[in-house]
Amino acid sequence: MLIDLHVHSTYSDGTKSVDEILNIMKGKNIRLFSITDHDNLKAQKEAINLAMKNGLNYIPGVEISCKFSGGTMDILGYNIDCDMEDLNEFLNKLVEHRNKRNVLIIRKLNELGLDINMEEVINESGGTVIGRPHISRALLRKGYVKSIQDAFEMYIGKGKIAYVSKNKHEPEEVIFHIKKAGGIAVLAHPLSLNLEYGSLERKVGELVDAGLQGIEVFYKAYSDEEQEKLLAIAKKFHLLVTGGSDYHGDNKPDIEPGTEIQEEFLKDFLEELSLQRLLSQS
């Protein structure tokens, strides 16, 4: 079954609008998808309405960064109540900090002699939620770097000279807010934790104790061998299995939307969402 449960729009660090994403999903005959923008739900109502009008299967989603030393830990929330006040307040605080962080990054770049300003960065974002990819695009447009990747490696990536750390919450708190909003909490791209297999398994066990319900086994960049190891972890902890491309449009041009997953691995997740009807259509 061709699905994609990990997609970013212009409401975070993707370059495609919600409407463009829906057209892509429809054109590729992707059977189920979710826009999972970072730390905000701004795409959701538009996506839900457009999906209904076009007869597409859509799940509301979000991706939230967590405190974790060493690697990167993100938790995906699926099928959340987008009107839940507590979750929206929690996310709004993250966006407020993101905005302050952008100002500090631009200030550091200015101190290094790079002439960019917030207006230019806002233009790159289309006026939506702003992040480092938009700063990198402004640097690229002005000729300070040769690619978006260059901007991260030279200036704004973790540990680089213009980097400012992001405000993050403990994974237990993130999972709590997702579940309180009626959602399903799933560990995104688990190998980004940069842990060897045994340590990763133990960390997943800790997250399960905190309420984690699923794991993104079929992340598009992972090899068959890596997916098999993650499937073993999912089986050990009775976790729901998901997958996605982490599509960002032109910000990650080597990644195309859509991830092929065998029905047997998606069955429990679809049943949790009352979407069993999709199983007989593939």
TrEMBL record:
* Residue stretches spanning the membrane: none
A matching Pfam family: PHP
Q: What is the lineage of its organism?
A: Bacteria, Thermotogati, Thermotogota, Thermotogae, Kosmotogales
Show the InterPro entries listed in the entry. Answer: PHP_dom, PHP_domain, Pol/His_phosphatase_N, Pol/histidinol_Pase-like
Q: Which residues form the signal peptide?
A: none
Give the source species.
Kosmotoga arenicorallina S304
Report the residue ranges that make up the Polymerase/histidinol phosphatase N-terminal domain in this protein: 3-68
> What Gene3D superfamilies does the annotation carry?
1.10.150.650, Metal-dependent hydrolases (3.20.20.140)
Q: Which GO terms describe its molecular function?
A: 5'-3' DNA exonuclease activity; 5'-3' RNA exonuclease activity
Q: What is the name attached to this protein's record?
A: Polymerase/histidinol phosphatase N-terminal domain-containing protein
